[in-house]
């Protein structure tokens, strides 16, 4: 039986819903993918990049509270985040969708 994502520290229902949109439905899949691949999958669903969810995932996979992420560890994660963002976030598409959303063309869930 798969382990619910919400069994991991830091992962609540809202984040579990985001993962479901990226076809990540359980803790085992998230662990197998790792932070970078899983966050990339979130970005490819249209999620806007933000550093905090990235390091929250990393801390969850380590079984640590998100507030533990500090100093050099956080700086190293920021570098990884920027690499994942560059590889998985289409800024032109995001800008286009923001315009479409502003004028009411996109139907947001």
Draw up the topology in text.
Blueprint: H1 13-21, H2 27-44, H3 51-61, H4 71-88, H5 91-102
Walkthrough of the structure:
With 109 residues, this protein is mainly alpha-helical. The chain is built from five helices and no strands. The protein has helices at residues 13-21, 27-44, 51-61, 71-88, 91-102.
Number of contiguous helices:
5
- What's the assembly state of these chains? single chain
Strand content: under 5%
Shape: globular
Number of strands: 0
The N- and C-terminal alpha carbons lie at a distance of 29 Å
Q: Write down the secondary-structure element order.
A: HHHHH
| Share of residues in helices | 55-70%
Helix- and strand-based class?
Answer: mainly alpha
